[in-house]
């Protein structure tokens, strides 16, 4: 599962250990990652999920959120900030949002950069699962230290050409860091993310803490999950873009 709520915000890191060759093949590492997460069969059998938690954005700003996902590739995020509730959603084709903080309480289609991001978030399984079928390429770059922890560094070249890096703990084979680039308001921004606090839920190990920030910058965004539910009943209408209220001006 990959999750970056409310699109906010890598480069290739330090040199690889001198003379150190990968001890295992890519296939072996991925197989151990799937197994550590709960097994490929269980990962791909999850039909839906509901995650409740809190998003911290620094400066004392916190926003409770509910993130809901349904296979294939449907996603809805609701978050409350300053007494107002925002929505970001994707029904598998159309990305839309309600942003009262921007002065409008009516649904609008997402800008292209946010649409690309929410499409990625809607892939609950993550880039490493069935990556060939998705048209991605995955390469084992080598090993690096991530805050003192040995980690395998994987390069993911997605079907659309975007490149990101995933770091798997060399002992437990779970993701602990990610790096990549995002286009925000027409500008390319490098980001880095941290993943941790894994807990067992419905036969899967799922992270309950994630943070994302612009590379080299302080602050950023931290997500803390208080509850994760799998295989919950969710109607397709939950993800569909509703009609604007009567008399509302059309979105641009």
Beta content comes to 35-45%
**What is the fold named in CATH at topology level?**
outer membrane lipoprotein receptor (LolB), chain A
Q: Portion of residues in helices?
A: 10-25%
Architecture per CATH nomenclature, i.e. the level-2 architecture: Clam
Find the structural class using helix and strand composition.
mainly beta
Largest sheet: 13 strands, antiparallel
For the record, what is the CATH homologous superfamily label?
Lipoprotein localisation LolA/LolB/LppX
> Any idea what the shape is?
globular
Strand order of the main beta sheet, please?
6-5-4-3-2-1-13-12-11-10-9-8-7
Helix-strand sequence: HHEEEEEEHEEEEEEE
Low-confidence stretches: 3-22, 248-252
CATH class: Mainly Beta
Question: Which labels suit this protein?
Answer:
44% strand; outer membrane lipoprotein receptor (LolB), chain A; 252 residues; 13-stranded antiparallel beta sheet; disordered C terminus; 13 strands
What can you see in these coordinates?
The chain has a single domain (26-228), classed as Clam (outer membrane lipoprotein receptor (LolB), chain A), CATH 2.50.20.10. The chain is built from three helices and 13 strands. Strands 6-5-4-3-2-1-13-12-11-10-9-8-7 form a 13-stranded antiparallel β-sheet, covered by helices on one side. Helix content is 11%, strand content 44%. It has helices at 26-37, 40-45, 112-121, and strands at 48-56, 62-70, 74-81, 84-90, 95-98, 108-109, 137-146, 149-157, 163-169, 175-184, 187-201, 204-214, 221-230. Residues 3-22 and 248-252 have low confidence and may be disordered. It has 252 residues and is mainly beta. The two termini are 32 Å apart.
């Amino acid at each position: 599962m990959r999750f970056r709520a409310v699109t906010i915000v890598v480069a290739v890191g330090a040199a690889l250990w001198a003379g150190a060759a990968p001890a295992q093949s890519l296939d072996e590492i991925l197989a151990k990652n799937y197994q550590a997460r709960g097994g490929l069969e269980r990962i791909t059998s999850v039909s839906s999920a509901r995650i409740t938690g809190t998003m911290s954005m620094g400066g004392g700003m916190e926003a409770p959120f509910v993130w809901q996902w349904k296979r294939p590739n449907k996603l809805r995020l609701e978050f409350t900030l300053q007494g107002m509730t925002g929505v970001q959603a994707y029904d598998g084709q159309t990305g839309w949002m309600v942003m009262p903080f921007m002065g409008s309480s009516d649904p609008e289609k997402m800008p292209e950069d946010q649409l690309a991001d929410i499409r990625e978030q809607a892939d609950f399984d993550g880039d490493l699962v069935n990556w060939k079928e998705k048209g991605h390429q995955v390469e084992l770059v080598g090993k690096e230290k991530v805050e003192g922890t040995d980690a395998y560094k994987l390069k993911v070249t997605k079907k659309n050409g975007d490149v990101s890096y995933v770091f798997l703990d060399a002992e437990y084979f779970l993701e602990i860091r990610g790096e990549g680039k995002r286009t925000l308001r027409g500008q390319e921004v490098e980001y880095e993310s941290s993943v941790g606090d894994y807990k067992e839920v419905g036969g899967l190990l799922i992270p309950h803490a994630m943070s994302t920030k612009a590379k080299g910058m302080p602050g950023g965004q931290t997500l803390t999950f208080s509850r994760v539910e799998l295989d919950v009943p969710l109607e397709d209408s939950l993800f569909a873009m509703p009609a604007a209220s009567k008399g509302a001006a059309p979105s641009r």
